[in-house]
Write a structure and sequence with these properties.
This protein is α/β, with parallel strands linked by helices. It is about 45% helix and about 20% strand. It has helices spanning about 1-10, 15-20, 30-45, 65-70, 85-95, 130-140, 160-170, 180-185, 200-205, 215-220, 220-235; strands at about 55-60, 75-80, 100-105, 115-120, 140-150, 190-195, 240-245. The protein has a seven-stranded mixed β-sheet with strand order 3-2-1-4-5-7-6, with helices on both faces. Helix 3 (about 30-45) crosses helix 9 (about 200-205), helix 6 crosses helix 8 and helix 9 packs antiparallel against helix 11.
Length: about 260
């Protein structure tokens, strides 16, 4: 089963792989800008608040996203199924007083009505059934709490890196487009479900890459840049984007 691979993944990738994960986003090379754009968008979707938020970071891996939230002054619990990932996270980020890590399957959380925000950042696509994780998340949130789902979209499962990870480590690498996330969020009881443009795609189209070919054309004028952003925020949004939703005061399940 894929969960077995998820549990042993950080052991199997060795210390070099763990170190790379610990130092994201700055160790990510050409994708550093993508990750910074994405984490900035997640921040912007946090609910309005006057003080600390209590944040649940689901599938946190070795904890770089959790540390970002904690260093912004929030109280954070990072959850991951891999004991090796949690061990590394505790050793590397244990100096942050508002950050805690636990080893747990996010399908089976030991929390109820405790958090203002739950985040799946590049982790829900590893689920065997995303509805189970989303159901656990809605149970952990306070009424009115926010969930944010930032996942790779259409085509991720067939990408060379994904195919290699599945074959080598036995993990799950699924497509998790916003259209699917939004549908399942509604089914488990979330409301006010909204999809936003995928920041990394805007970054790639307008800022990153070579100066030739299509990239040069897209950047050649304000009009072309405007058309690119329009296409990304409309036609591409159901397949590549970030989804945010709210836990209502009273949950009504939608089965269809």
């Amino acid at each position: 089963m894929a969960k077995a691979g998820e549990r042993t993944y950080f052991k199997d990738i060795g210390q070099e792989g763990v170190d790379y994960s610990l130092h994201k986003p700055f160790a990510a090379g050409t994708t550093t800008g993508d990750l910074l754009h994405d984490i900035a968008a997640v921040y912007s979707l946090f609910p309005d608040h006057s003080g600390k938020l209590r944040i649940l970071d689901l599938g946190c891996g070795t904890g770089w996203t959790s540390s970002f939230y904690a260093q912004s002054g929030h109280d954070v619990i990072g959850v991951d199924i891999s004991p090796d990932a949690i061990k590394a996270a505790k050793a590397h980020f244990g100096h942050l007083p508002s950050l805690e890590f636990i080893c747990s399957d996010y399908d089976d959380l030991p929390y109820s009505l405790e958090f203002d925000v739950a985040v799946f950042f590049d982790s829900l696509h590893h689920a065997e059934d995303e509805r189970v994780g989303l159901t656990a998340a809605i149970g952990a949130l306070k009424p009115g709490g926010r969930i944010i789902v930032c996942e790779p979209g259409l085509g991720h499962a067939k990408a060379p890196a994904s195919l290699h990870a599945v074959k080598t480590y036995g993990v799950s690498e699924r497509d998790m487009p916003p259209k699917l996330s939004a549908k399942q969020l509604k089914k488990v009881g979330f409301s006010n479900v909204n999809t936003y443009v995928y920041p990394a795609m805007v970054h790639r189209a307008l800022y990153r890459g070579s100066n030739g070919g299509v990239t040069r054309l897209l950047r050649s004028s304000a009009v072309m840049r405007g058309v690119t952003v329009f296409l990304l925020t409309t036609l591409a949004r159901p397949w590549y984007g970030i989804v945010a939703a709210t836990k209502p005061q009273m949950i009504v399940l939608h089965q269809k």
